[in-house]
Amino acid sequence: MQQHPEEILQAWMAAVNTGNVAALTALYDRNAVLIPTFSSRLLKTPEMIEDYFIRLGAREELSVALHEKTVISQSLGDQIYALSGIYCWRFAIDGELLNFEARFNYMLDLKRHSPIVHHHSSQIPRVI
């Protein structure tokens, strides 16, 4: 079990970047809710979350990188944290490598074996 919110985020990114869906889904509590970057559905079961990451992991050259200076960690009580920031997804579509900046928010309960209880990620809209 990780001791700091940033370690959870690092483990999550490592699992995405290595395509380790089992390690990735193991970070999510069985009652977790995921509002994902690349889907309009609310994912509220372990099976839905796993299916999303399997489909996302099938993308060519998939990776995610953190904009480290954007990360904000807020302690909300006894081992409960909100973790927010910006990361950049990268994967190929029709052979072209594309970047998708997204903002994220995690609710973490570090007392749990699987500490992610809520995760919201959405693409950053283009400024007009």
* Overall mean confidence score, pLDDT: 94
Globally, the shape reads globular
The largest sheet, given as strand count, sense and whether it forms a barrel, is:
6 strands, mixed
Quaternary structure state of the chains depicted: single chain
| Intertermini distance | 43 Å
Order of helix and strand elements from N to C terminus? HHEHEEEEE
Name the beta content range.
Answer: 35-45%
Instruction: Tell me the total number of β-strands.
Output: 6
Q: What's the total helix number?
A: 3
Structural class: alpha+beta
Radius of gyration: 14 Å
What's the helical proportion of residues? 25-40%
The low-pLDDT segments are none
Summarize the helices and strands and which ones pair or pack.
Elements: H1 5-18, H2 21-26, E1 28-35, H3 46-57, E2 60-66, E3 72-77, E4 80-93, E5 96-109, E6 116-123
Q: What this model shows, in words?
A:
Helices cover 25% and strands 45% of the residues. The model has no long low-confidence stretch (mean pLDDT 94). It is an alpha+beta fold. The protein has helices at 5-18, 21-26, 46-57, and strands at residues 28-35, 60-66, 72-77, 80-93, 96-109, 116-123. It is built from three helices and six strands, in the order H-H-E-H-E-E-E-E-E. A hairpin with a 2-residue loop joins strand 4 (80-93) and strand 5. Strands 1, 2, 3, 4, 5 and 6 form a six-stranded mixed sheet that branches.
